[in-house]
Amino acid sequence: MSHFPFFMQRAILYMLVLLGLLTTAVRAELISGPMIAHLEMREAKIWIQTDEPTLVRVAYANADDPNALYWTIPEETDSKQAHTALVTLDKIEPGLNYSYRVELNGEIVTSPARFSSPANYHGRTPPPDFKVAVGGAHYVIEEGFEPPYQLLGGGYNIFSAISESQPALMIWAGNTAHLRKSDWSTQSGYLKRYNKARSVSQLQPLLQSIPHYATWGELDFGAPNGGMNSAYREVAESSFEAYWPRPVVVSQLEGVATQFRHADVDFFVLDVCSYRNDTPVSSSPPQILGKGQIEWLRQALIQSEATFKLIIAGAPILNPANSRSNLSYAEREHNDLLQMLRDARIAGLFFISGGKSYGELTRLVHANSYNLYDLTLGPLTANPGNNEEELNFFRQPGSSTFERHFALIEFSGSESERYLTIRVMSVEGKELWSRKISANSLQPVK
């Protein structure tokens, strides 16, 4: 093939692989997705899951110029990662509307889906207003695996309510699959449970229209009290990443920590599982985030020029109650983190957390700095609980939420007066409570 032009080599290789696949599969099927895994001004990543080994491509075009059609480089799905694939759309440009369709083994199998690329506002206009959807624990009922006379999940129409609210992106704040004892001893178990969680019909339109980002909680990681010493740690991480690819891999860290930006907001996604050691020997204190991850966060926050800096974790960060599900359980590490944030004089901080069966807003009052907020999300579709056993004396009155819910976080206002507005919503999309916080109130004391 050395005498052929490069594009001819690629075309011939594609046809050979396609012919090989067609000999073993009459018609591949899409199981889940497509899902927008990441969206930037000049690139998009689309996640896809098929039912068997399949050659996957995506055709896409600017909605205003549908004749200029682009194709992604073919990707092959395989059984090791539950037949999932991540394809890159590298012909994206800022501020445009795009239409895309999925091709499996040479056959288009989806109707057109659409997304809009972020506008390049830098140095041109004020930052655009937008809103983010945030959800907590997701549990999908699976026949043959449920305890008798109990329903541990429901309310799947919540995803339709989220779609109708038209957010720019969605954040999943942990416990996205809800593993059970039958799942956490094999990779097949992990992958089957993630597959079931992803397959909800009401979820599909939401997946394909906006980008989705996730961190994990304890119930995504495996058995209770798991952490850095878990024998299944590698299995847990590879399974999670098969369904939740990261926008960027932080090369100096293990685990699933990542970051991304939208408009004038930077998002920092923490890992509360990979470094967890909450049953240490007496000579060392408990840890949940680990020194390396805290140092990465410090450096990333210092470098950020964003108006708001959202820190996302699969466990509450500011809740002071003595529970192993809170970061405060690792008391020394918790104090070190808060002291680091004070010393570095980071403006615009706001925390989002999952890992609870209820929702609430925690406000930490600082005498020598600004107040910090942590919005904790209860379940999307898992069963809700209450907070009677936790003494969180920083909990804001009226913010306790004991039903399935999601949150909308809206960023709005002029460049000099930006606001963050929290709206906690019911399964039906009705507002349960709201709070408005100005960026000017999230500034270090001079």
What's the layout of helices and strands?
Layout: H1 6-22, E1 30-39, E2 44-50, E3 55-62, E4 69-71, E5 75-76, E6 84-89, E7 97-104, E8 107-108, E9 113-116, E10 130-135, H2 158-164, E11 169-173, H3 187-198, H4 204-209, E12 212-215, H5 218-221, H6 233-243, E13 258-262, E14 265-269, H7 291-303, E15 308-313, H8 331-344, E16 349-353, E17 360-364, E18 372-376, E19 405-413, E20 418-426, E21 431-438
Parallel strand pairs: 10-11, 11-12, 14-15, 15-16, 16-18
Antiparallel strand pairs: 1-2, 2-6, 3-4, 3-5, 3-7, 7-8, 7-9, 10-19, 13-14, 17-18, 19-20, 20-21
Could you tell me the strand content as a percent range? 25-35%
Instruction: Kindly name the structural category.
Output: alpha+beta
Task: Please tell me what the overall shape is.
Answer: globular
Q: What's the mean pLDDT score?
A: 92
What's the story with the biggest beta sheet? 6 strands, antiparallel
Count of separate DSSP helical elements: 8
Count of DSSP strands? 21
Q: Order of helices and strands, N to C?
A: HEEEEEEEEEEHEHHEHHEEHEHEEEEEE
Low-confidence stretches: 21-25
What gyration radius follows from the Cα positions, in whole Å?
Answer: 22 Å
Distance between the termini: 67 Å
Helical content stands at: 10-25%
